[in-house]
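FAQ: What does a multi-protein file look like?

Like this. Sequence, then tokens, then the next protein.
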Amino acid sequence: SYIVMDSPPEHGSLAPFVDITRRLRAAGLHAPRIFRENRREGFLLLEDLGDELYRDLLDEHSVDALFGEAFDAMLVMAHETDRSGLPEYDEDLLFDEMYWFVDVYLNRHRGTVLKHAQRQSWGRLCETVVNTTMEQPRAFVHKDLHSCNLLKTRRNSPGIIDYQDAMVGPVTYDLVSLLWDRYIRWPRARLEGWMEQFRQQACPEATPEQWLRWCDLMSLQRNIKIVGRFAILEHVEDKPGYVEMIPRFYQYIQDVLALYPEFSDVAEWLGEPECAP
């Protein structure tokens, strides 16, 4: 069977999707094969990867096997996929994404304006997170690798979708995107086990302690961004429903902040009623 992708040109070009599909397939990864293209009308005829989303399959019994397949694919994606000419996930973008949290989630969604001391502590957090992120080796980054964008397939599993926004960025980004999932909250001990498992193959030159900090702070950046992005979808783009998912990602932020005493001031005011979801 086939999938027809309908993306009218006025809603955006198909070129990034086609480009990244070819890069992933050239690396041996299971992005959907493109059978026919009509870019003028905005149609693609694609291979059907099925409907066995990781989201529906993951549980405490299946997770190690599924993550094992995912990690193998992620290693190839990170280090063996052509990333020439892709946009850079740079410091400016990392900072901008974190400030969506303040400017849209807090100010607009919660109606909360930070006090001077709170803004200073937020600035210190952002600077530390971004500087630490920029220490990491660079890799091909899917940028939205979570359990709805991976599928169990009969051959060359997993199937990979929704990669058109791929960039060159920090090597931990896709890992934390997968582990801090919107549907399943894994125990900390399991997260640390998977982080170390991936480090041993993806970046053995990093010490376990360094890698753990890289992952934790990368998760902070991503989850802070997600809370802000969901507020943008609700209040700016008029796409309701996303704010209902904010509490899980907000909790993820608080979970990691609690592990790092250097961020205790931010953790304290994020827990106040005028900030919490």
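And here is the next protein:
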Amino acid sequence: MRTSNRNYAATVPFVEALARLGLRHAAITPGSRNTPLAFAFAANPEVADSSHHDERSAAFFALGMARSTRQPVALVCTSGTAAAEYLPAIIEGRNARIPLIVLTADRPPETRDVGAPQTIDQHGMYGRAVKWSYEAPVPEANPDIVNAFTALAGRAWSAAVDAPMGPVHLNLPFRDPLVPVVVPGDVPDDLPEPVFPSYSPPPPATPAVELVERVFNSLISKKTVIVAGPTNDPDFAAPASDLATRAQIPIIADPLSGLRAGNHPLTNVISTGDWLARRGDLDDALRPELVIRFGATPTSKSLTNWLAANRDIEQVLFEEAGWRDPSASASHLIRSDATRAATVLAARINEPVSPAWVDRWRHAEAAVIESYDLPYPSEPAVVETLNTSLPAGAALWIASSMPIRIMDAFFTPVERDIAMYGNRGANGIDGLISSALGTAVGTNRPTFVYAGDLSTLHDLTALATALRMEVPVTIVLVNNDGGGIFSLLPQADYPEWFEKHLGTPHGLDFAKLAEAFGIEHHLPTTRDSLGDLIATPATSPRIIEIRTDRQQSADLLRSMWKRIARG
């Protein structure tokens, strides 16, 4: 194929260079202009390629795979608005630090800005949403151009994986012929083998010894709490839990921190940080003198508001790159990989700092959990059932908006390997099921989705993909016929406009939607039947629907909050 014509003389080595660097999957959408890329990926035995009808869904599929494997995934599309459909997932990838290699095929420069069909300005079209963007030369079968392509593969790979990880964009223009037809004289017989770059990434940043000592000295002399926000590193939970256990200090764990479920010690993992911050415990009996922060901004608004309101407390933020401190409350920002920082600090601890301090937190956590009211059907009851019924080794994707907040409030620590994911970089509800499909294909874990009705409607294309790719994903769908989270906000006090613009009821029958897609559908009427369905391995895509009432759900959460607030 490489010797057929100039397009393949460039794209075949380009794909091989990516494969040698470690690329193992390309998500491709159909089109004519991207044929030289699609065929080159299809012909490479080292790179699996998947085909997707919809660019938006394909981009989130790649995002989900890259998030869970922590390896770049390539996206390949044709020219025109197809490339624009990638933007939501690219934005999520940039904010959440997910490595994507976005390859947009384009028409050659002479066709631009002259009214040629399916031709838009693609060069740099993603702006600051990507870490790096470049336009490749039009392929030629000469050593300079071919090696420029293999070098671009190396540059794209390194830019995507260097800290902080993120998406990169290559725009690749092609002239006809787009198929690997032999063009006599197009590729010289003596065209030399290209140079294939290798890349050695720098080791994870480790905090300087003197900074470790500074934090250590504060930790052993002050009442300390760890706040662990969302992280992408599955290796973070073990050293973070080890640090909390050795020092006997509490660790407030976001559901996406990796700490709420696993085989690491869970004794000091606090799942009720949102409730405790909201109730005022952190300003009273549980008020710390030192906060050690890892990861992205926590899901809990009450907790982030508390961090912002307590800048007088020493707050140390370990951050490998960037500056994720929206409350501007960090008194010290230390450049370090979170996993390395937790490991180094844990190794420095020789004896418990304050067992009585962590006991106070444990008692507060237990008292809050004791106050839970989890009637079925309700959102909290669904989370409790996921907690008790998900199989070991499962992956769970959680929708933004209401589901992640319910998960944060009610998913208690569990000694089982459950990998939890969510698109919390930009906090959008789109692409949820597609992201889960990427994780399922990339990790082979039994994969579940905790979704709302609106996040499911946003990503219906993924149902067709799941069936076509034979991915046995389980969608646990809480259907409250609209935007449930808004019923808890001040906007609900304006009923004349609320339902149309925020409540947005749709009245759709998900059983009929599932039937249209050929997807298995269940409507469990009891908590036990829901648990049995979750615990039963899926053999094909399925929807488990739980119907709830928005107003009743809002009333339940408000009454529970009043009960917990009373202590």
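Q: Is there any per-entry metadata?
A: Some entries carry free-text notes. For the entry above: The chain has a mean pLDDT of 96.
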